[in-house]
Here is the input.
Amino acid sequence: ACSLTLNVANAGTETINTTTGQILNLNQVTIGTGVNFDTLQNSGSVAGDAIFLSDVDGGALSGGAVTSAGTTGGGTRDAIEITGGSTSNMSFASATIDNASGIGIRILDPAGTVTFTTVDIDGGAFGLFVGETGGFAPTGTVNINGGTFGATATQSNSALLINGGDTTVNIAANVTHSGASGAGANVINRSGGNVTISGSVTTTGTSSGISAGSNTAGTVDFQGNLNLSGANAAISVAANTAGTYTFSGASKVVNRTGATGAAGAARSWTRSRSRARSRRARCASARRFRTASRVI
Here is the structure.
């Protein structure tokens, strides 16, 4: 980072409100004792990233309550982008985001801990993207501790995309997805680390459900309830060379309404369950035979 040191004291009410102007841009900044905001807001549509935080190091940043009414300019124009291997710990009390032309929250190469207490992200191409550019070795953690993705307006692509790296990711927000492409949650190209999705995932329409693919290590655990009735693949775990994949939610409902080539994952899961039931039936029959033999 450069020699600029920034402090915003946690005194009084610290607020930035814009209409169509960028809310905040911190690039190669060292934070001193801390940066604290109560609210960060754009009420119109920003031509670019509404909040851009790159290579931010040093003390902690508290963004308070973020509200973004939209961004324009294509798929790389996000409501919040955190990138550049930032080492500062960052926290946000809430993020209410609508109509980002790119991604609601994009987090690349985090080296600190990024926490959102709750989110309400509707529309946009993706709701959340967590990934690695290859220029850093991210060791950070991303926490989404509650809220919703796609509750009133679905993402046009996937609601959650965790792509590459070994950042620890914990998502407790509930996902609803019915987009024409993408899925409720994709976890792909990971080289390690833990991804835990404890919120529910509900998919309808032409959406795919959840997928974990092309991972070489790490763990993926869907702990929340699953209700997957989109027309495409409900559950896909494919092309992984290693890793552990767990579906530990209390309720798992797969009710596919269509059939495409990619949907074989759901059929395979059903067949596996049928085979398991058949094996259990055969074993039960064998036990009854052995018991009868002993009585005779």
Notes: The longest strand covers residues 183-197. Residues 259-278, 285-296 have pLDDT under 50 and may be disordered. The two ends are 83 Å apart (CA to CA).
